[in-house]
Amino acid sequence: MRSGTAIGVGLAMAIAGASVARADVPAGKQPGHFAPLPAAQVQCQVSDAMCHRVAAYVLEHISPWIADHRLLDAVAAQNVDNAKLTNIDIDKLDIGWIDRSDKQLIDSKMKNGLSAYLKSKKDLDPDVIVEIFAFDQLGLNVGQTDPTQDYNQGDEAKYWRTVMVGSGAIFIDQVGKDDGRNVSQANLTISNAQGNPIGAMTVGIDVDKLAAATRPVVASSPTGQVGAGVALGGPPAGQ
Predict the structure, then answer these.
(1) Which end of the chain, N or C, is less surrounded by CB atoms within 10 Å?
(2) What average pLDDT does range 161-178 have in this prediction?
(3) CA 162 to CA 36: how far, in whole Å?
(4) Is residue 3 part of a domain?
(5) pLDDT in the model for residue 224
(6) Mean pLDDT across the stretch 198-226?
(7) Could you please report the per-residue DSSP string of the chain?
(8) pLDDT of 108 strictly over 60
(9) Domain of 101?
(10) How many domains is the chain built from?
């Protein structure tokens, strides 16, 4: 991971008024400044160019999904069901998931209505989208398109930089290998109608496929001048 500047002002205004920052730079010391708006606050742990590309893709194509009632209802319901879980309970569930011994738990998350919805979203752009999963306010999986290594995400950056940051937070994690593919996980806070965070959604992005299947996007600067083109892929219009 290298340090760098935040996404330019023009692009930040063009993609939903997002305030985009480097996750590896302390708050208040970002190299650029643009007024933060509640629409989204993006933090990246990837290169500046990749942050541009992934953030634009996520904000245009992925972020609308977190307002869908199927996602909101499923996450809210699990929050009620899990309200009394202790840390010991969570550890036990996580171990059963990791060693694949708790088949009932795994099936309940892989084969539910939310998982079917998330799979339909993955199918919109299967080359770019590697996986999608959602977790509740404790960090526990609710539904998913593919098996995850663990059940509890509550001890990972994807949880701390979304649910614990608040509504509108988007965290683009560093690139890692996933079955030979270069994948960055984009993580978005899920919020209820009152604007309170209730969970988060993670979308694995194949950064090579995203770069290869791009189309130019023009961002307007605050002065009205045309900004630099931004590589942006995505499913067909209207999807």
Answers:
(1) C
(2) 95
(3) 16
(4) no
(5) 27
(6) 68
(7) ----PPPPHHHHHHTTT-EEEETTS-TT--SS-----TT-EEEESS-HHHHHHHHHHIIIIIGGGGG-HHHHHHHHHHHHHTTT--HHHHHHHHHHHHTT--HHHHHHHHSSHHHHHHHHHHTTSTTTEEEEEEEETTSBEEEESS--S-SB-TTSHHHHTTTTT-TTEEEEPPPEEETTEEEEEEEEEEE-TTS-EEEEEEEEEEHHHHHHS-EEEEEEPTTS-EEEEEEE--SPTT-
(8) yes
(9) 9-232
(10) 1
**CATH (domain of 225):** 3.30.450.20
Is residue 173 assigned to a domain? Answer: yes
Token reading at 235: 């499913």
The yes-or-no verdict on residue 114 having pLDDT over 80 is yes
> What pTM, to 2 d.p., does this model score?
0.78
Is 109 a domain residue? yes
Tokens 């509640």, residue located: 38
Report which of 160, 129, 16, 143 is spatially closest to residue 72, judged by C-alpha positions: 143
The model's confidence at residue 2, banded by pLDDT at 50, 70 and 90, is very low
Inside any domain, residue 237: no
